[in-house]
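Write out this protein's structure.
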Amino acid sequence: MGILSTKHFIGLEKATKQDIQTLIDYGYMFKEVLDRPIKKVPSLNGINIANLFFENSTRTKLSFELAEKRLSADVINFSASSSSLNKGETFKDTVQNIHAMKIDGIVMRHPTPGSCKQLSQYVDSVIINAGDGTHEHPTQAMLDMMSLHEKFGKLKDLKVAIIGDILHSRVALSNIYGLNKMGAKVMLCGPPHLIPPCIEDLGVVVTSNLDQVLDWADAINVLRIQRERMGIGLIPSVREYRDFFGITNERLSKIKREIVVMHPGPMNRGVEIDSDVAESDQAIILDQVLNGVAVRMSILYSLLGNEKELKNEKK
C-alpha cells in the first residue's frame, strides 16, 4: 500500500479528509516539478501502468499519460474501439489478459457505474478511476479542489456552487463528496428535472435561481451541457438554457465582487458559459488543466511510489 489509506482511488465517497489533503499537498510538490526546465522525476521508474479507456476522452487521457511519463513510469494505452472486445471478448478476459503482462497500476474510464469496483475483483493492480459512467470522476474533483485551495488558501467554509446538469454529472458527485469532507459549503443549481432526487441528503443546498447562486458563491463550477441529451427532450433549446442558467458577463457584472469561475471541459461556448467569461481574469480553467497533471502525478505517486520502494528493498 502507498501513502494513502486505501490501495485504490475509485471514488471520494469514502475517501478520508487526510487523504484528500495529502493529495493536494503532493500536488503542489509535483506542480513545482512541472515548472522545471526538465519536467521529469524518476519516482515511478520501473512501474508499469495501463490506461484503459472504454469511452472517448481528451483531457483526462492526455493528463494521465503526461503525469505517468513525468514520473518515469512505463505506459501502455488501450482503446476499446480497436480491441478484441469487438471480436466478442469479455471485459473480464480483456483486463485479466492485460494484468497478466505484469501491470502495476490501471487507470480506467468506463461507461458503466461501478466498473472500477468490479475491476478490483479481477486483478491485483492498483486501480484509479478516470470516470465510471454517471457515478464518480474523483481525479477531476481533486484537481478542482486543488485549484480552489490554490486560489483561496483553504477549502473550509468556502462557498462553492455547481451549476448545470447535476443528474448526469460524475464530476458534480465527486466534487460534492470531496468538498463536503473538506468543510466547504456546496450549492447546486440547474433545471429542476436535471437535479437528482434527494440530493439534499448529501448535505447540499439546491436552487434553480442562478442570481441567488451568484450572489452567494465564492466560486462556481460550470458543468458542460450535454448536447446529445437535447434530442431526448431534457434540454428544450440552447437559447432557453442560456437565458436561465448561462454564465454571462452581464450576469457577473451585477455582482460587486469577483467570483472564481471553473469548468471541467469541454466547454460549450455560448451555452453554459460565454467566451468572454471563460477567458476573463476570474476564470481559472487553464489553471485547472495544469493542476490536473500535478494532482494526477500526486495520486499515482501516492498509490504506487512506496510500492516501488518496497520492491527495491526486497531485491
